[in-house]
Design brief:
This protein is mainly alpha-helical. It is built from 23 helices and six strands.
Length: 562
């Protein structure tokens, strides 16, 4: 009997050892490609992926590789998501929901750092706190639910000097995990000071606007979008009448019975009144007090709760409830889909089948944002190049390059940073106090709250000015290097003025900048030579001629759209 059992066990082990491993999980297939649109070629697809994930264009070798091996697209998507610049793109997408990035920090910089760091350093430290946490969760392959449940915030050396944050002292100056030590319950972005100073409240508003800002950001649910029947008999100018109406009047209570309990979670947060002549009295600045948590009793009058559920009375309880709400994952999918396809949030919401497919995959992959993003970037919706028969009403097609993406691309190709010197230090493509972000299709998070999706005159002008400055720096730096060490001017030396040499360089530039293959005898190559030659004749200087030529190539619409 024992021998029979051993034989049976051996046979079972052999069967298990020889069985095939389970097939890897795959998302549900996307809907078939449409017949009324054209799709990107593999080269164009890689260019879009690279700009979306890194903010710059692929190298010539990468373009050649994807043209020969189109099935390697997922490999490049994963590789680009490992690039440090990918974190910047995540922050840009989520700022559209949070709107915490502003040109000036709410508080002046810590005294010990004034005169050492620029105003731009202070504004970016104060405005990036929740966005840094989101990008940290994404780039570290953490479950995305951690953005509302994390027992830490993200802080760099500057932010830790602002607020009561216990940041490790042996981690350099960059952004690292660090907890607040003022007693606040920790719930990821929900606990960030930055959000509560961006979305402030008043005694009469009672945290309702702030609570709705949270709901918009992480649930994509806006209480202001609800149909409201206003009782015209109410005296809305009387705070006491309004306070009573939100509890007893059916036209008001229907909304406030869910909004007000959310607002009741936020009473521990406050903006200190110790600001005098633009100087905060003491650092670290206090922005939370546990003793203020119960003020909801005199404020909203409704105990903390989550859409009719009693989930606990602290903000970390709120974070746990949000993480379990199906609207949270759906909102994340919508924001990533809108950010990468260049569509408005309302438009991607209307594509129910695609959002549902992506959400199923997102949840199945334990809320891994990289898996979600990979699927978005491989989807037919992302790969649309334009309509088969364009009309003036068509809005689908190539995407408009954002100012932050343009900033990174010019730095990558030319080593060029368009910014003011200290003590201000603002990036001119990422600021509107002194810069041109709104003009280049961006937004300031206050007066303009979303990016442009179509080009206008100021966008073209800004692109031309930035391109001219970048071209000047690039030509000087390239000609200072040996030909084999250059990235763009690899076919010519300053002494080369022949048409053949210029056209050969034009072929290389078209490949690098636009992903297009032209020949030396093409009209495009001839156009480049004609422009170069006119500039050369004017100054009798080949470097000057290349600066003019590259300025024109950098400001071409094929750079502005991708």
């Amino acid at each position: 009997m024992r021998r029979a059992l051993l034989v049976a066990s051996s046979s079972l082990l052999l069967m298990v050892g020889c069985s095939k491993p389970p097939a890897p999980e795959k998302p549900a297939p996307a809907e078939p490609e449409r017949t009324d649109v054209t799709y990107l070629t593999p080269v164009q697809h890689l260019i879009r992926v690279s700009i979306d994930l890194r903010g710059t264009r692929p190298s010539d070798s990468e373009l050649d590789d994807i043209q020969a091996h189109p099935n390697k697209m997922r490999h490049y998507i994963r590789a680009y998501m490992d690039d440090p610049r990918f974190a910047d793109r995540v922050k840009e997408i989520w700022n559209e929901g949070f709107l915490t990035r502003q040109d000036r920090s709410f508080f002046p910089g810590p005294p010990q750092m004034q005169g050492v760091l620029t105003e731009d350093d202070f504004s970016k430290a104060a405005g990036n706190e929740p966005l840094e946490l989101i990008s940290h969760v994404v780039t570290e392959d953490r479950p995305f639910t951690e953005i509302v449940t994390a027992k830490y915030t993200m802080a760099n050396e500057v932010l830790a000097a602002y607020y009561d944050i216990n940041r490790p002292t042996d981690q350099g100056t960059g952004w690292v995990e660090a907890p607040y030590q003022d007693g606040r319950p920790l719930a990821g972005v929900l606990s960030s000071t930055d959000f509560h100073t961006r979305w402030r409240t008043t005694d009469s508003n009672r945290n309702r606007g702030r609570a709705n800002a949270w709901s918009r950001a992480v649930l994509c649910y806006d209480f202001m979008s609800r149909d409201i029947i206003v009782d015209t008999a109410l005296n809305l100018a009387d705070p006491n009448v309004v306070n009573n109406a939100v509890r007893t009047n059916p036209s008001c209570a229907g909304c406030h019975q869910t909004l007000d309990p959310l607002a009741s979670y936020l009473y521990g947060y406050f903006v200190p009144e110790t600001v005098d002549d633009q100087a905060v009295m003491s650092y670290p600045i206090k922005t939370y007090s546990m003793n203020l948590e119960d003020r909801w009793q005199q404020g909203t009058g409704r105990a903390p709760g989550y859409f009719g559920l009693d989930v606990g009375d602290k903000i970390d309880d709120l974070g746990n409830a949000i993480s379990e709400d199906p609207r949270f994952s759906l909102c994340a999918v919508k924001r990533f889909e809108a950010g990468f396809t260049g569509a408005y949030l309302k438009d991607v919401t209307a594509d129910f089948n695609e959002i549902d497919r992506l959400n199923d995959w997102f949840v199945k992959r334990d809320y891994n944002a990289k898996d979600l993003i990979e699927e978005i970037l491989m989807s037919p919706q992302y790969r649309i190049a334009g309509p088969v028969q364009p009309t003036a009403a068509d809005v689908i097609g190539l995407k408009l390059l954002g100012p932050e993406q343009l900033d990174r691309m010019l730095y990558d190709v030319a080593g060029f940073q368009w910014k003011l010197s200290a003590p201000l230090g603002y990036d001119l493509l990422q600021n509107d106090i002194y810069g041109f972000r709104d003009m280049a299709g961006g937004y300031d998070s206050v007066y303009v709250t979303g990016p442009a999706h179509t080009v206008n005159a100021t966008h073209v002008l800004t692109l031309r000015f930035a391109a001219g400055d970048a071209a000047g720096k690039l030509v000087d730096s390239e000609f200072a290097e040996a030909k084999g060490s250059r990235r763009f001017l690899t076919k010519v030396e300053p002494a080369d003025i022949s048409a053949d040499a210029i056209k050969a360089q034009a072929v290389s530039l078209y490949r690098s900048l636009y992903g297009e293959t032209i020949t030396p005898d093409s009209q495009d190559a001839q156009d480049v030579y004609d422009l170069w030659n006119k500039a050369y004749v004017r100054q009798n200087d080949s470097s000057y001629a290349w600066k003019v030529t590259l300025a024109a190539l950098f400001s071409d619409v094929r750079i502005a759209f991708y």
